[in-house]
Amino acid sequence: MEQQEPTTDRRRRNEVERRRNFGIISHPDAGKTTLTEKLLLFGGAIQQAGAVRARKAERYAVSDWMAMEKNRGISVTTSVMKFNYRDFEINLLDTPGHQDFSEDTYRVLTAVDSALMVIDSGKGVEPQTEKLMEVCRMRNTPIITFINKLDRDGLPPLDLLSDIEEKLQIECVPLTWPVGMGKIFRGVYNRYRREMNLFRPGSDRRVDDGVKIKDLADRELDRLLGSQAGELRADMDLLEGAAAPFEVRHYLSGSQTPVFFGSAINNFGVRELLDALVEMSPAPLSRETLTRVVSPFEEAFSGFVFKIQANMDPAHRDRIAFLRVCSGTFRRGMKVMHHRIGKEIAIANATIFMSQDRTNVEEAWPGDVIGIHNHGAIKIGDTFTEKEPLAFTGIPNFAPEHFRRVRLRNPMKAKQLQKGLVQLAEEGAIQVFRPKGKSDYILGAVGMLQFDVTAQRLRDEYGADTVYDETPYTIARWIACGERGRFREFEERNRSSVFFDADDRPAFLTSSEWRLEHVMEAWPDVEFYKTCEQA
Ligand code: G4P
Q1: Are 436 and 408 spatial neighbours (Cβ–Cβ below 8 Å)?
Q2: Most Cβ neighbours (<10 Å): which of 140, 143, 314, 343?
Q3: What residue's CA is closest to ligand 1, atom 22?
Q4: Among 24, 25, 26, 29, which residue has the most ligand 1 atoms within 8 Å of its CB, making it the best to mutate?
Q5: CATH tag, 19-280
Q6: Is the CB of 152 within 6 Å of ligand 1?
Q7: 447 or 98, which is more confident?
Q8: What is the pLDDT of residues 51-93, one digit of tens each?
Q9: Residue 232 burial (CB count, 10 A)
Q10: Per CATH, which fold does 290-385 belong to?
Q11: 129 lines ligand 1 (CB under 6 A)
């Protein structure tokens, strides 16, 4: 048997510093799946590339989705993709998009240390990217930008940068710059390495390294690019004057984003991106708890649950809780405190997500994600530690954007419905709102698929056959007011709009932005929140 190395401070430091944990934010069709596959290819995790595609290909039908969730291989590997690049261990956390866009998509971003933003050069900033960016801004998550599809005609690069700056309120610093686009795309000039990377359409692997250009006046540039060399020189002159210098501290504080151009499908610009990611993006960061900040270098293990995946094995009502390790070392079989329920549990059967050899991994480090099998005792936001009672913060519920009233087909099943909704809300599968004193349930979701999955799970797991009715609501905000009497008055005057969520926190549901603004103006002492921390 292989001797296990003792965990010295040095080893711990090394394991933390060589880890990177990030998610991709993008609008559907910008190229997230393609880029993910290319990143995995570079990391030598080639066998997973098919799984990413396969999942996307079947994304439209709920029945397929449910069937797929049963397939442990696919759902596990696509939730967290771990791969190595150079000396680094990278955890790429999947941010579900398209039809399976859900509250999980937002919540995954609360578990990453940095993000990669993919923008389609033909479209610029699109709505879903704006929404995801809003979540990143909550924790000032550092963001690297990849502008994709340069092999197609798109918007001029400077317009793309000002679009990002304007819509996302983040300063752009292009570290590479494209020469032409579409049919006349010749490649990208790497401003910090001073080299020209030439584009060869269709080649899946770049064979040659970039051509070093000592000076932009270098004749080599004319030989390589012909008349387009002049354009590049003019662009560079313009950038020198107009673009801010890149400063790592501004990137780390989320106020500046380094920008790279390329074409994921042609594997072009992907290596530069990955190099930047491991060199610039932060190693696992400290995380706040209710009582103190936890450093990843601490010896004692701690972590929090940011996602729960059900139906891994429906026969056993099996669920996997995804836990992000925040400090210490996780060792298979170790005992940890589950603080919310005040019990010690042995995590004997944790899954550690590795692309290569899952069975041989016995330990996990800060930045890694482990999967804990459970039967419903774990809730989103739960903290696990070796001993010290802690509660990590910053894993909130996000205001739903779609609403349905749920109704039983058979009224005798009210208990089953109630039990199902309580558990599904705890898992973060759906949000539940109830008007005061009525037995009505309004379900809230961030993505429409959440409703289909909820109905299916209520029927299969809880025996509650339900139908949905439309509701007038389109917006929800959690509400608070320092003064009790005033809050009661608000509740009284807005009786049809005040609801209570699964944790009994009051929320205001309304039908339009206009109405919300109107009410906010009329009640300046009531606070309205788009997110709400778990109870
Ligand atoms: P997503 O996960 O963000 O939704 O995007 P995905 O990678 O699936 O890419 C969306 C479409 O854009 C795909 O085409 C993909 O091939 C294409 N694409 C990705 N990167 C590039 C690129 O660098 N250049 C060009 N020209 N196209 C790119 P599709 O027709 O929807 O799917 P498929 O038939 O290619 O699978």
Answers
A1: no
A2: 143
A3: 149
A4: 29
A5: 3.40.50.300
A6: yes
A7: 447
A8: 555 555 544 334 344 454 444 333 444 578 888 899 999 999 9
A9: 23
A10: Rossmann fold (3.40.50)
A11: no
Residue nearest atom 17 of ligand 1, based on CA coordinates: 31
CB proximity list for 390: less than 8 A, separation 6 or greater: 289, 290, 291, 292, 294, 302, 339, 383
Class of domain 396-533: alpha beta
Q: In this predicted model, what pLDDT tens digit does every residue of 492-509 receive, in sequence order?
A: 999 999 999 999 999 999
Domain ranges of the chain: 19-280, 290-385, 396-533
Cβ-contact 268, 262 below 8 angstroms: yes
Q: Give residue 30 CA to ligand 1 midpoint distance, Å.
A: 7
Report pLDDT digits (tens) over 307-362: 998 765 555 567 888 999 999 999 888 999 999 989 998 877 677 655 444 444 57
Asked if residue 461 lies in contact with residue 317, where contact means CB atoms within 8 angstroms, the answer is yes
User: How much is the average pLDDT of 186-209?
Assistant: 76
Ligand 1: residue of 25, 26, 27, 34 to mutate (most ligand atoms within 8 A of CB) is 34
Edge-to-edge order in the sheet of strand 343-346 = 343-346, 335-338, 383-385, 302-313, 318-327, 369-374, 351-352
CA of residue 148 to ligand 1 center, whole Å = 10
With a 6 A CB cut-off, is 151 part of the ligand 1 pocket? Answer: yes
Distance 264 CA to ligand 1 centre (A): 8
Q: What is the pTM of this model?
A: 0.90
Instruction: Tell me whether the CATH fold assigned to 19-280 matches the one assigned to 290-385.
Output: yes
Residue having the nearest C-alpha atom to atom 9 of ligand 1? 31
- The DSSP call for residue 124 is B
Q: How many angstroms is it from 120 CA to the middle of ligand 1?
A: 10
CA of 354 to the centre of ligand 1 (A): 26
Question: Tokens for 464?
Answer: 């509650």
- What residue has token string 């696992």? 284
Question: How many Å apart are CA 154 and CA 182, to the nearest integer?
Answer: 7
Q: Report CA dihedral (241, 247, 253, 259) to the nearest 10 degrees.
A: 60
Q: Give 33 Cα–ligand 1 centroid separation in angstroms.
A: 8
Residue 31 in contact with ligand 1 by CB distance below 6 A: yes
Distance 246 CA to ligand 1 centre (A): 30
